[in-house]
Design brief:
- The protein is an alpha/beta fold and 300 residues long.
- It has one domain: Arginase, Chain A (3-Layer(aba) Sandwich).
- Helices cover 35% and strands 12% of the residues.
- It is built from ten helices and eight strands.
- It has a six-stranded parallel β-sheet, sandwiched between helices. Strands 5-6 form a two-stranded antiparallel ribbon.
- The longest helix has 22 residues.
- The protein is globular, with a radius of gyration of 18 Å.
- The two termini are 34 Å apart.
- Bound molecules: manganese (II) ion.
- The site of manganese (II) ion has 5 residues, from loops.
């Protein structure tokens, strides 16, 4: 949780592990390598510094997973983990599908709360904290028109909505449980620009009925589990997934493990995707990327 191991959301990732996420993935025929990423000691206590410390380690973990031909699935307390993941991707044509109730597109100037994870998408697209972003190896920010933002229904303050509108990010808002735009055409357009994407899922994108256990106050009208599965499938039929994050699961706020179950289902779906890419014979028209292929020798 942005480098704060004492925050209730920091319990989420361990809870997925406890619930058997590795067994779930192994059941798909995948070799699972689990790695814990923390801020470490001697970090300055301010949130951007703590976040940077975690994200520097996350960047290294993601990069080495990709180089080992694995699919990084990052279980994170907060959305700023997306910074480290994007920084760990191989440079190239990788877009972003960001599914979230919020825009995460504030800047220190526009934000009224100063909530750092609420600036995550703005940071990776080069809108603020440019020095912090540069500290991850001076990578170019992700172009706005390589980004699809879906599930959004709480932009605050209005300045965030204006900033999004002025950007080239394709936004598919959600209202009363329905998409307020054509997600398929947004993904088609994205697939015309990039070959692969980073898939970022904030659990708060779900309807509160499906995922009450999150960091922020739940926002009604979000995605059902079936809709989230549909969106993930719509992504995998058009694009390769270079890495994925599931963020903000907060066990202490959950009800009957609903958020846990929804998250596990999405992770299972990602596992099925990774397994299918691994099974695809090389030399087909659309081979899996090095980043997601499961080598035959890795299979049990
Ligand atoms: Mn978020």
């Amino acid at each position: 949780m942005a480098g704060d191991a004492s925050h209730p959301a920091a319990e989420g990732p361990g809870r997925y592990v406890q619930a058997g996420v590795e067994r779930l993935l192994a059941g798909k025929g995948l070799m699972v390598h689990r790695q814990r990423v923390e801020a470490g000691s001697g970090v300055r206590p301010d949130v951007p510094s703590a976040s940077r410390a975690v994200n520097q380690r996350l960047q290294v973990a993601v990069r080495s997973a990709i180089r080992a031909a694995r699919l990084p699935i990052v279980l994170a307390g907060s959305c700023d983990a997306g910074i480290g993941v994007v920084a760990g991707l191989e440079l190239g044509h990788c877009g972003i599908v960001w599914i979230d109730a919020h825009g995460d597109f504030n800047t220190p100037e526009s934000s009224t709360s100063g909530f750092f994870p609420g600036m995550s998408l703005a940071i990776v697209t080069g809108h603020c904290y440019r020095e912090l972003w540069a500290s991850f190896g001076n990578r170019p920010p992700v172009p706005e028109d390589w980004v699809v933002l879906a599930g959004v229904r709480s932009l605050s303050p209005p300045e965030e909505a204006r900033r999004l509108q002025d950007s080239a990010i394709r936004v598919v808002p959600w209202k009363q449980g329905r998409p307020q735009g054509d997600i398929a055409s947004a993904l088609d357009r994205l697939a015309g620009r990039v070959d692969e994407v980073y898939l970022h899922i904030d659990n708060d994108a779900f309807d509160p009925q499906t995922a009450p256990g999150i960091v922020d106050e739940p926002v009604p009208g979000g995605l059902s589990l079936a809709q989230m599965e549909e969106v993930v499938r719509a992504v995998t039929t058009r694009l390769r997934i270079a890495a994925a994050t599931i963020a903000t699961y907060t066990p202490a706020s959950d009800q009957q493990d609903r958020t846990l179950m929804a998250g596990l289902r999405i992770i299972e779906l990602l596992g099925e995707y990774a397994a299918s890419v691994g099974r695809r014979p090389s030399g087909t028209a659309r081979p899996g990327p090095a980043g997601t292929r499961v080598r035959p020798s890795d299979r049990p």
